[in-house]
Amino acid sequence: MSRLSKITFIFVVVGEEVWRGFSRRVRKEESRSGSVVMSGIALSRLAQERKAWRKDHPFGFVAVPTKNPDGTMNLMNWECAIPGKKGTPWEGGLFKLRMLFKDDYPSSPPKCKFEPPLFHPNVYPSGTVCLSILEEDKDWRPAITIKQVTWTISAELCKSFTSDPIHELLVVFKNDIINMQTIDFYITAGISI
């Protein structure tokens, strides 16, 4: 029996009003089916990432999925912490970072945001991290892992300046390394400036 004849048969048997409701549900499911599949891929990949992280992660780094109100694990939202490297103005600090994943992960990168926001050339005032590996149209690749993202963010914290600063205040401090290091110290110490 062809699809058209099945639909005609259902219409005759169940009546017009019931069919309209069924038809709306089918169209709604068809429009969502793409994201359902992608969400399944994202959840599967994130479960693998969690397992890999638990087996091996950089010393001092933290990356754990958050919990939903009902106590279940939310793999789409991770709480992370990145330690400041020794010998840098960030030494001794532990910087909290949230990673939010979309349904189409790993095709799209996670959104990484420091909470509270951090004063740094690669961090927007909102706390969102600005790195080319976190931009889908630049250097993001689906093979990049959570471990690589946290490691790259840590490496970027060590850099005082980039060729593309995003903070207006960096213009003032660009040629004044001492003021920039003073700001880094206050941030690492948790002192508000």
List keywords for this structure.
single chain; four-stranded antiparallel beta sheet; 15% strand; Ubiquitin Conjugating Enzyme; 193 residues
Detail the topology: elements first, then pairings.
Layout: H1 3-14, H2 16-55, E1 62-67, E2 73-83, E3 94-100, E4 111-114, H3 146-157, H4 169-173, H5 177-189
Helix pairs in contact: 1-2
Report on the architecture of this protein.
The structure is a single chain. The chain has 193 residues and is of the alpha+beta class. It has a single domain, classed as Ubiquitin Conjugating Enzyme (Roll), CATH 3.10.110. The chain has helices at 3-14, 16-55, 146-157, 169-173, 177-189, and strands at residues 62-67, 73-83, 94-100, 111-114. The active site is at 130 (glycyl thioester intermediate). Pathway: Protein modification; protein sumoylation. It is found in: Nucleus. This is SUMO-conjugating enzyme UBC9.
In short:
By secondary structure, this protein is of the alpha+beta class.
End-to-end separation: 73 Å
* Poorly predicted residue ranges: 2-36, 161-165
How many beta-strand elements? 4
Strand neighbour order, sheet with most strands: 1-2-3-4
CATH superfamily: Ubiquitin Conjugating Enzyme
Structural class: alpha+beta
Strand content: 5-15%
Number of domains: 1
Can you give the helix content as a percent range? 40-55%
Level-2 CATH architecture: Roll
Count of runs of 4 or more consecutive helical residues: 5
